[in-house]
Design goal:
Layout (H helix, E strand, L loop, with lengths): L1 H23 L36 E13 L6 E12 L5 H17 L18 E9 L6 E6 L13 E10 L11 E8 L5 E9 L13 E11 L1
Antiparallel strand pairs: 1-2, 1-8, 2-3, 3-4, 4-5, 5-6, 6-7, 7-8
């Protein structure tokens, strides 16, 4: 009888610890179903660079981006110039550490082989990140000239209908991808220009996205698939 009671007590204690652990992974973004605890999710930045400086605060959102980088051929240089990007943004805060580290690589393997009919919004679920937080795309800059990147949560999840749940940003830091920079697009740091979603945005751990090294002037614009991690602070 004593052994049974002891076993029951230990089982109850284990359940309480488990519940506490799950509870601790919930954050203030919602009811715990959208984002897990992300205070320990840090950016792995190369130590020998100063272009990207990690904030001292915890990130607000940690996401997988799956999409395309768009380019047009410059008639003066016969090289491709960026004309923006489009991506779906998935919450990766609940991934285990090993999965978190490689999620962009695993997602790219699926995305790069996907047919033209496959939507980027379907890729997150294939790597254990089914929760779509929002979208990334480019809009006309506030100055009226050029394009600015935008991360937009206004139509998805708990932020749907919140007109301020976005961040329009300007680039303040740029470094070539540490691995295969001719294939993988640059890592970036950006500061808020408009919106209430975040004050800083980082794009790191990029896979793919770079265009060919040259082009024929007058040729049609191209789209190049990519994945990356996005940290919003």
């Amino acid at each position: 009888m004593f052994a049974f009671k002891l076993l029951s007590a230990l089982s109850s204690a284990a359940l309480l610890v488990s519940a506490a652990t799950l509870s601790s992974r919930k954050d203030s973004h919602g009811n715990g179903k959208e984002c897990c605890e992300i205070s320990k999710d840090t950016m792995d930045l190369p130590p020998d660079q100063t272009a990207l400086v990690a904030p001292t605060t915890d990130p607000l959102f940690v996401m997988l981006g799956v999409g395309i980088q768009n380019y047009t051929c410059s008639s003066t240089t016969s090289t491709y110039a960026s004309i923006g990007a489009v991506a779906s943004l998935f919450d990766i805060s609940c991934l285990e550490k090993s999965d978190f580290a490689e999620v962009q690589t695993k997602a790219f393997k699926t995305w790069s082989k996907a047919s033209a009919k496959t939507k980027a919004t379907s890729i997150g679920a294939t790597v254990g990140a089914p929760n779509l937080l929002g979208f990334h795309y480019f809009v006309t800059s506030p100055s009226g000239t050029g394009l600015s990147p935008k991360w937009d949560f206004t139509s998805t999840g708990k932020f749907a209908g919140n007109a301020t749940a976005f961040v329009l940003a300007a680039k303040v830091g740029d470094m070539a991808a540490p691995t295969n920079p001719a294939v993988n697009v640059d890592w970036l740091a950006l500061n808020n220009v408009q919106g209430a979603l975040a004050s800083k945005v980082f794009r790191i751990d990029t896979v793919g996205g770079q265009p060919p090294s040259s082009c024929v002037p007058g040729s049609a614009p191209i789209s190049v698939k990519y994945t990356s991690k996005y940290f919003l602070f």
